[in-house]
Amino acid sequence: MRLILVYNVTCQRQKTSEGLKANQKCKLMDISGKKRVVGAGRVHSIDPDQKVHHVRLGENAARVWVDVVNVDDAAVWRPSDEIEYMRDSLGSSIAWPKDKLVTY
Known about the structure:
The chain is mainly beta.
């Protein structure tokens, strides 16, 4: 019997933002276009009328609770007076584009 190991160089297929649910764990991808994970958290809401830091969420966005910050100086999608960078968002909720969320 021969054992053949195959190394898969592509990432394991993960769920995209379609079908987001409340409390679902997610990775926040860099909004600058770099292919990196800048943080992780949980989806709070995808209701377009939900407000995040006094601004309506709108279409194609999610309110996300930030549990982990991987890149301190990565910009957030919608900066506020209190939150400009990912380091400022730890333990808070922020708006993030749905197409930059990867759920798991």
